[in-house]
Amino acid sequence: MTDVIRLKVGDPAPEITVQDIHGQPTALAGYWTNGPTLLTFLRHFG
Fold first, then answer.
1. Scanning 26, 27, 28, 42, which has its CA 20 to 30 A from the CA of 34?
2. What's the pLDDT tens digit per position in 7-32?
3. Separation of alpha carbons 37 and 29, rounded Å
């Protein structure tokens, strides 16, 4: 089982890296330094 990090409202977001729409690794910290950032997770079936 994977360790789960539970955040509370107001907690700083963890520093993570995700893939952008081109498949390149992108550090999310670069986005939220200028303000709030919304993450959307899409599920793909098929």
1. 42
2. 899 888 788 888 888 999 988 888 77
3. 9
Q: Is the pTM higher than 0.85?
A: no
Closest by Cα among 46, 45, 20, 22 to 31: 20
Q: Sign of the C-alpha dihedral, residues 13, 15, 16, 17?
A: positive
Please provide the DSSP assignment of the chain as one string. Answer: ----PPP-TTPPPP--EEE-TTS-EEETHHHHTSS-----------
Tokens of 13: 């977001």
- In this predicted structure, what is the pLDDT of residue 1? 54
